[in-house]
Amino acid sequence: MIGKTEASNKHPGKESRSGLPLSVILIFQAIIMLFGIALLWMALPFHANAPKIGYVETNRMLASFGESRKNRAEIDSLNKDWQAKAKTLKDSLDGFMNVMGQTFNKASVQRQQEMRAEIEKRNQDLAQYIKASQKRVLEREKTLLEPTLKKINAFLQEFAERKKFDLIFGSTNNANILAGGHRLDLTDQVIRELNGKYP
User: How much is the pLDDT for 176?
Assistant: First the structure.
């Protein structure tokens, strides 16, 4: 009897299997439950008001837009044309240099000076032609690109309003998208609708 009395006085409350008083465990469970409810309460407004976000792979959109492809074809043709003419000038220069290499030491001083002047002139002509051609192509590319970008930007603004997007990001080869990629990717849809509006 004495042993039992001492035991009951030592642990007056009920114990769980873990050895902790049951009242402590119940309080702990209540705290966890309240914490969970608080988290849920805080999360609900966030999800209810979360912004609708998507992204578009800019390079793929431009490469797939019909008007952009036409622009690219024109620019490629201009580049191909001036590069072919530059190659003709370069081949002529190389041919003259080969002849000069074979005859320079045997030529008179005056003829050597003339050959040097001719080489210098041809080099300058080639460099100036390349520079001027590249400038013309860049100017033409800018002329073609500006109205195309205006169409795309106007379409994306209308698309975002119609689909109720708060933000649409532009991504280059998916470089800025770290997670959630396919779920947020609007590229294919934008390409289809963009080409449908501007066939």
Answer: 53
31 and 64 in one domain?
no
Q: How many separate domains does the chain show? A: 2
112 and 34 within one domain: no
Amino acid of residue 93: L
Q: How confident is the model at residue 6 (pLDDT cuts 50, 70, 90)?
A: very low
Same domain, 88 and 168: yes
| Bridge partner list, 104 | none
- 39 and 69 in a single domain? The answer is no
- What is the residue range of 91's domain? 53-197
One domain, residues 8 and 76: no
- DSSP states along the chain: -HHHHHHHHH--S-B-TTSSBHHHHHHHHHHHHHHHHHHHHHHHHHHHTPPPEEEEEHHHHHHHSHHHHHHHHHHHHHHHHHHHHHHHHHHHHHHHHHHHHHHTTTS-HHHHHHHHHHHHHHHHHHHHHHHHHHHHHHHHHHHHHHHHHHHHHHHHHHHHHHTT-SEEEEESTTTT--S-HHHHB-HHHHHHHHHHH--
- Tokens 């009395």 found at: 5
CA 57 to chain centre: 6
Indicate whether 74 and 22 sit together in one domain.
no
Per the model's pLDDT, the better-predicted residue between 142 and 48 turns out to be 142
- Structure tokens of 31? 């705290």
